[in-house]
Amino acid sequence: MADEHYHVLEFEKPVYELKKKIEELKHSAREKNLNVDAEVKALEDKVTSLRSEIYKNLDPWQIVQIMRHQKRPKTLDYISMIFTDFTEMHGDRSFGDDKAVIGGMAKLNDIPVMLVGIQKGKDTKENIMRNFGCGLPEGYRKALRLMKFAEKFHMPVITFIDTNGAFPGLEGEERGVAEAIARNLLEMSHLKVPIIVNVIGEGGSGGALGIGVGDRVLMFKYATYSVISFEGCASILWKDAAKASEAAKILKPTAKDLLQLNVIDEIIEEPMEGAHVDPETAAANLKKALVAHLSILLETPLEELLEKRYKKFRSMGVYTDEAQSAI
């Protein structure tokens, strides 16, 4: 129980306390040989009602907390649950191998595909090895190498976004991270194979966009996608990273917001408390969507595919006098 409590989010505590009370009541009843079925049923009904109320009215910062849950499935988890015959490929053939950006060939059912994704760690040691999911220039160049390989052999590309941004250190600037991301945007815009982008966790800044151009952009219900990390935005606007929750409200980063803005194409459902509670169900939902979209894209003529991709991204963003007045 202690371990479970450690992972309970602040807004989930009322539900946790009720569940704890139910367990204590059951334990006491067993020891004293009492019938407490009616009391347990009443508490369980209250848990169901409270859970529904909480998760029906989540604010953006609460969604961010679910998205950042330390047990949330990562890219390699989804790869293992959805695909078969995954063979990881390494290196950018220029500088080195970035552990934050992973990729390789696999099969979606019987269809050969190329997978590219950002991989966060599951503990401190792995996070250090993975640069906390922040890609270096060689990572984005590796991603492009794999995508061009896929184009050569007519394999669809499927990407997984889970990063708060590209690696912010001096090494990234020295090795040209901005150019690497910009090059990927250019090349992905006219890559001659279908591309499906999946926002599975945190989609932040250019680090996400570096593998984010595609024919379809799918997003998990509790994922986020924004132009900058929430702490980074708060530091710029208010000189205080602690105001990240305020930044989350104004950035419109949730799947619901972005579907309304036509930035994404579909919201992938998760278990009520988040994908970390039942990763297999989340993966099954994502696989179903991938198969459906890929079957359509594979039947689309190449010229039409590229034209629709171009128009999709060119049509994003609206400027009106009303919006300017509000600002």
Keywords:
327 residues, alpha/beta, 2-enoyl-CoA Hydratase, Chain A, domain 1, 2 domains, 8 strands, 51% helix, 15% strand, disordered N terminus
Radius of gyration from CA coordinates = 22 Å
Return the average pLDDT rounded to an integer: 92
Category from helices, strands and their pairing:
alpha/beta
The helix/strand series, from N terminus to C terminus, equals HHHHHEEEHHEHHEHEEHHHEHHH
Estimate what percentage of residues fall within beta strands: 5-15%
Helix content: 40-55%
CATH fold call of the largest domain: 2-enoyl-CoA Hydratase, Chain A, domain 1
Number of domains: 2
Number of strands: 8
In the CATH hierarchy, the architecture of the largest domain is Alpha-Beta Complex
Number of helices: 16
Shape: globular
**Distance between termini?**
48 Å
Low-confidence stretches: 1-6
- CATH class descriptor of the largest domain: Alpha Beta
Characterize the main sheet: 8 strands, mixed
- By CATH, the superfamily of the largest domain comes out as 2-enoyl-CoA Hydratase, Chain A, domain 1
What does this molecule look like?
By secondary structure, the protein is an alpha/beta fold. The protein folds into two domains: 2-57; 67-318, 2-enoyl-CoA Hydratase, Chain A, domain 1 (Alpha-Beta Complex). Helices cover 51% and strands 15% of the residues. It has helices spanning 2-6, 13-32, 37-56, 60-67, 75-82, 124-129, 137-152, 170-174, 177-189, 205-209, 230-238, 244-250, 255-260, 279-298, 302-314, 321-326, and strands at residues 84-88, 101-108, 111-118, 157-163, 195-204, 216-220, 224-226, 266-268. Strands 1, 2, 3, 4, 5, 6, 7 and 8 form an eight-stranded mixed beta sheet that branches. Helix 7 packs parallel to helix 9 (177-189) and helix 11 (230-238) crosses helix 12 (244-250).
